[in-house]
Design goal:
The longest helix has 24 residues. The two termini are 53 Å apart. Helices cover 36% and strands 18% of the residues. The chain is α+β, with helices and mostly antiparallel strands. Helix 9 packs antiparallel against helix 10, helix 9 packs parallel to helix 11 and helix 10 packs across helix 15. It has an eight-stranded mixed β-sheet with strand order 1-6-5-4-7-3-2-8, covered by helices on one side. Strands 15-14-17-16-19-18 form a six-stranded mixed β-sheet. It is built from 17 helices and 19 strands. The structure holds adenosine-5'-diphosphate and magnesium ion. The site of magnesium ion has 4 residues, from helix 2. Molecular chaperone. Has ATPase activity. Homodimer.
Length: 558
C-alpha cells in the first residue's frame, strides 16, 4: 500500500484549530450538529447530482446518517450515504478555508485567551468542531461515481495525513477518538446512546434524513432491532411556526449559515395560494465578512418538495437582500432548474415579490416596535439597505422609510427621514444634509453655521454609499433632499440682498484679486451671506460632484 502523504494545514486553519482545541467554549456537544449537518448536505448534493446522472444512485437508495458508538474503543463514528469526496476535495475542503470572510476575520484575530469562546461563536467552525471532543479524527470517504476511497487523519496539531483506503460504497465516515469524559468542561460520554439521542433531538431534529443508532443486540434477539430514527425528520419550514422553538430555529440557522451567533429575527411563512411555498428566513445579527465582495453568494437554499436544488439561490430575493439567510421550499417549481429558467419563472417571480415584501415588513415592524434592535440591525446591514434604495425601484418608497442617519440634533442618535420631517420647524421646507468622512469633519464645516443659527437640523451622511442615496433620491414625502454644502443656498434671504449689493461693490476689487490668485483651484469667488462666524467656505456648485462622491468614485478606480 502507498505511504500516507503528509500535509500541513493552511495557517488560518491551524489557527482555527488551536482556538477550537484550547477554547473554553462550553457548548461542545454541537460538534454533532455540525457533523450531521455536513452528512445531510452531502446526501442533498448526491440527490441533486443524481437528477442528471441517475447512475450515481443505487436502486432503492435510502440515505441514512448512522451514529456508531464504541464504548470500549472510546470512539464515535458518523457515517453517511452522501456524495463523498475525492482525494483532492478532501485536501481542499478539510485543509483550507475557502471563505474569504472567515479567513480575514481570522487574520485579524490575535486573541487566544478568554475571547476564544466568543470568537468561535462568531464564525462556525464546522467540521473542525470535532476537535473540541476528539484528540484524533479519522475520515474515510469515497466519492459517488468513483471506486477509490481515501483516508484523512489528524490530531489537529498542524498536519494531516492522507492515504488510500477501502470503502464498499460511496459516502463518508468520520471517526472521533474521544477525549476523556470531563463534565466540568462540558464533555459528556458521546458513546452513550441516550446522550446521543438527546443531542440529536435537541440540535438536529430538523435534519430530513433518518439519523440512526445501530440496533441493540439483546440476548433474546439474535438479530438487532430495526433502526429507529432519533430525529423527527420534518423540515423546519413544514412545521407550524407555533410549534418550533427559538432554539430549533437557531440550530437550523447555524446549519445553513456558517454563523454561530443567534439570528436577529426569524420569518416563517407558509403560503397556499396561486403559488405554494414555505419559507424560513433569517435576518442575521451580523453581516457576513465578505458581504461586499463581488463573488458573495447568499445563504439561501431552494428546495423543491424537500429536495435541495440550489444552496445559494440568488433568484428568490433582490441582490441587496443577500444577507438574508434561510430556506424556501415550493412544490410549484420543476426539479431541473437552470439559472435562466429560475429567473424567468413566473412562480419564482411571485415568490420573490412576496418574500421581499415580507422581509421589508419585518424590518418596518422592528423599527417601530424595538428601536434598539433595529438600530443594531442598521449598524450591521444598513449599508446594504442603502444599496436597495439605489437599485430596487419597486420597493424604494418603503426603503426610504427604513433609512437612518446621524444628524446635528444629538451625537450618536440616529433619525429616520420621517422623524426628521416631524421635527422641522415652521419656515423650513426642505430636508438638509451634509456629507463628509466623519461626524467630526462635518461638524467643523462652516456650511453648518447658518443652519445652527436657524435651529434647522442637518442630516450627517458619513457613509460613502450615502452619496448614492442622495444621488437617486431627491424627495421624501414631498420634501426636497438638499445638500447644505452645495451651491448658492437661497438661505441668503432677501433681507440680506440689499446690503449685499452694497458690499459687493465694496469687496469687488478684493474678490478680483482672490479670483486671479486662486483660479487653478476654484471656479468662482463670491460674497456669501450664509456664514455667520467663519470668514470663508468652500462649496461645490449645485450640479458638481461633492468631495465625498469624488472620493467614492476614485475608490472604485483603485
Ligand atoms: P461548511 O459545511 O460550512 O461548508 P464544514 O467545515 O462543516 O463547512 O465542512 C467543510 C467542507 O467539507 C464542506 O463544505 C464539504 O465540502 C466537505 N465535507 C464535510 N463533511 C462532509 C461529508 N460528510 N461528506 C462530504 N463532504 C463533506
Ligand atoms: Mg458544515
Amino acid at each position: 500500500a502507498e505511504q500516507a502523504q503528509q500535509f500541513t494545514f493552511q495557517a488560518e486553519v491551524q489557527r482555527l484549530l488551536d482556538l477550537v482545541i484550547h477554547s473554553l467554549y462550553t457548548d461542545k456537544e454541537i460538534f454533532l450538529r455540525e457533523l450531521v449537518s455536513n452528512a445531510s448536505d452531502a446526501i442533498d448534493r448526491l440527490r441533486f447530482e443524481a437528477l442528471t446522472r441517475s447512475d450515481l444512485l443505487p436502486e432503492g437508495h435510502e440515505p441514512r446518517i448512522r451514529l456508531i458508538p464504541d464504548a470500549e474503543a472510546r470512539t464515535l463514528t458518523i457515517e453517511d450515504d452522501g456524495i463523498g469526496m475525492t482525494r483532492d476535495e478532501v485536501v481542499q475542503n478539510i485543509g483550507t478555508i475557502a471563505r474569504s470572510g472567515t479567513r480575514e476575520a481570522l487574520a485579524q484575530l490575535k486573541d487566544k485567551g478568554d475571547g476564544a469562546a466568543q470568537l468561535i461563536g462568531q464564525f462556525g467552525v464546522g467540521f473542525y468542531s470535532s476537535f473540541m471532543v476528539a484528540d484524533r479524527v479519522e475520515l474515510v470517504t469515497r466519492k459517488a461515481g468513483t471506486d477509490e476511497a481515501v483516508r484523512w487523519t489528524s490530531a489537529g496539531d498542524g498536519s494531516f495525513a492522507v492515504s488510500d483506503a477501502e470503502r464498499d460504497r460511496p459516502g463518508t465516515s468520520i471517526t472521533l477518538h474521544l477525549k476523556p469524559v470531563d463534565s466540568e468542561n462540558g464533555i459528556e460520554d458521546y458513546t452513550d446512546r441516550w446522550v446521543l439521542g438527546r443531542i440529536v433531538k435537541q440540535h438536529a431534529d430538523f435534519i430530513t434524513y433518518p439519523i440512526v443508532l445501530p440496533g441493540e443486540k439483546t440476548e433474546e434477539l439474535a438479530d438487532p432491532a430495526p433502526e429507529k430514527p432519533l430525529n423527527s425528520m420534518k423540515p423546519i419550514w413544514a412545521r407550524p411556526p407555533s410549534e418550533v422553538t427559538a432554539e430549533e430555529y437557531a440550530d437550523f440557522y447555524k446549519q445553513i449559515s456558517h454563523d454561530w451567533s443567534e439570528p436577529l429575527e426569524t420569518i416563517h411563512t407558509r403560503v397556499e395560494g396561486l403559488v405554494e411555498y414555505q419559507a424560513v428566513l433569517f435576518i442575521p445579527s451580523r453581516g457576513a465578512n465578505d458581504l461586499y465582495y463581488a463573488g458573495f453568494k447568499p445563504n439561501l437554499r431552494l428546495y423543491v418538495k424537500r429536495m435541495l436544488v440550489r444552496e445559494n439561490s440568488e433568484e428568490l430575493l433582490p441582490r441587496w437582500m443577500r444577507w438574508v439567510r434561510g430556506a424556501v421550499d415550493s412544490p410549484d417549481l420543476p426539479l431541473n432548474v437552470s439559472r435562466e429558467m429560475l429567473q424567468s419563472d413566473r412562480h419564482v417571480r411571485q415568490i420573490r415579490r412576496a418574500l421581499t415584501k415580507k422581509v421589508i415588513d419585518t424590518l418596518k415592524k422592528l423599527q417601530e416596535n424595538d428601536r434598539a434592535k433595529y438600530e443594531a440591525f442598521w449598524r450591521e446591514l444598513g449599508r446594504a439597505v442603502k444599496e436597495g434604495v439605489d437599485s430596487d425601484f419597486e420597493n424604494r418608497d418603503a426603503l426610504l422609510g427604513l433609512l437612518l442617519f446621524g444628524s446635528s440634533r444629538e451625537a450618536e442618535a440616529l433619525t429616520s427621514l420621517a422623524e426628521y420631517v416631524g421635527r422641522m420647524p415652521e419656515g423650513q421646507s426642505d430636508i438638509w444634509y451634509l456629507t463628509g468622512a466623519s461626524r467630526e469633519q462635518i461638524e467643523n464645516s462652516p456650511a453648518l453655521e447658518t443652519f445652527r443659527d436657524r435651529g434647522w437640523e442637518v442630516l450627517y451622511l458619513t457613509d460613502p454609499v450615502d452619496e448614492l442615496v442622495v444621488q437617486s433620491v431627491t424627495e421624501f414625502e414631498g420634501k426636497k433632499l438638499r445638500s447644505a454644502g452645495k451651491g448658492a443656498v437661497e438661505l441668503e434671504g432677501a433681507e440680506k440682498k440689499e446690503s449685499s449689493d452694497e458690499q459687493k461693490k465694496e469687496f469687488e476689487p478684493f474678490l478680483q484679486v482672490l479670483q486671479t490668485r486662486l483660479t487653478t483651484w476654484v471656479k468662482e469667488v463670491r460674497l456669501s451671506g450664509r456664514l455667520t462666524k467663519s470668514p470663508a467656505v468652500l462649496v461645490v456648485a449645485e450640479h458638481d460632484y461633492s468631495p465625498q462622491l469624488e472620493r467614492l468614485m476614485s475608490m472604485g478606480r483603485d
